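Intended use. Records like the one below are meant for learning the mapping from a protein sequence to its folded structure. Do not use them to infer anything beyond what is encoded.
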Amino acid sequence: MARVISYKNYVGLALGSMIGIGWITVAGDWLIDGGPLGAILAFLIGGFLLITIGKCYAELTPALPLAGGELAFSYKAFGNLPSFLTTWFLAFAYICICPFETVSISLLTDYILPELKSETLYIVGGYPICYSSIIPGLAIGALIIALNFFGIKFSAIFQTIAIALIFLCVACFTVAAFTKGSFSNMQPLFAHQGSWAAVPLSVIAVLGIVPFFMSGFDTIPQAAEESGLKVNPKDLGKAVVVSIFVGAIFYAVVIINLSICIPWQEVTEYKTLPVVEAFSVAFGNEWITRLALLAAFLGLVTSFNGFFIASTRIIFSAGRGGLFPKWFSEIDKKHHTPKNAIWFVGFLSLIGPFIGRSAILPICNVGSLAFVCAWFITCLAAIRLRKTAPNMKRPYKVKNISTLYIGAIISAILILFLIVPGSSAQLVWPLEYLILIVWLRLGFAGFFVRQHSKDTTKEQRDYLILGDYR
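Structure written out for the chain above:
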């Protein structure tokens, strides 16, 4: 693997994956559930809580800077089977986001160029599929595949430039909102009639979805093996923490801008792209609408690119380490990229436009549980390795071990939110549970076939997964 990613590229990778397009499409829902201040507090509190999980990643990433990240963490801490489970969960979470992004492109294209919308070819789950929804998704998918195939350096530079442009757009929104908007538009500050008694309900209603929109910091360890030779190992850990902090601030600023430009109750009436529509109404300027659409497009592409990088690296490392089929472990000799993993994820991404949003959404919901399960195991790995490998070199060492325990507890609580009956975030029965069961069965089948092939000894597997860190 080529070692070319810089510190700023890592921060760009994480932020690009984290920010995405969600703030453009569902910010109105945050205001409905929590009100302006309730939503702001939810993201700031959620970011603070996620930093405890991020600290576990920050300690382990520079200590074990290997492709696949969590694969190496869990393997060194717990061994073969827990490592496979962690990897299989993460593979699902990352891969399912990629076709979702190719589908989302069509929504944006239809909004920007409604005159190009073509006749419906067929319908999947109430979602119309037409040429105008298929072609944009295929085009962006091909771009991301090419960026990643021809070298991680091109992909990382693209990610960094795109995220810088997004922040520039948001800076323009902020100036416009504070110049022409009014803080009186934020009243009432909380949902549920704005009473102070409703403050906890308002904050909690949004807090439950914060982890989904803040996921992305965990893409850094996936590409840790490709860090440039000038990158201080400690900076890998810093990049994790910095990305969570900046991401939380970003979302808080967006909510403030949105809720002061017009009365926030009006924002909730816009269903397609509430941020774009609200700015268009508030400022009446074509340029700010175009700027918002540019930010939406860049957010979608950076999210797609970030999770594409992460998914290909986790699959490649599992193939190399003897947990997935060996085919995934092949490296392109010229570009030093995991070519077969790229073709596999790219193929699945290009399926998205043909099956539509309604078919992919349940899969993405299951992906949320997969993310949190991987976070939980990583936190446990950080705790266990403090005991089993106390002398392991830790360039970024968390000072207070209680932080690692808090990260594990928060991860466990998030898992309960997704599986406990009656929770507003619970997976839908039976479809989403069935998707989870099928994925696990497929994974175990492949795992046991690879194990019984005995094409690698334990010593070889230790080296292929952990390298010189075994």
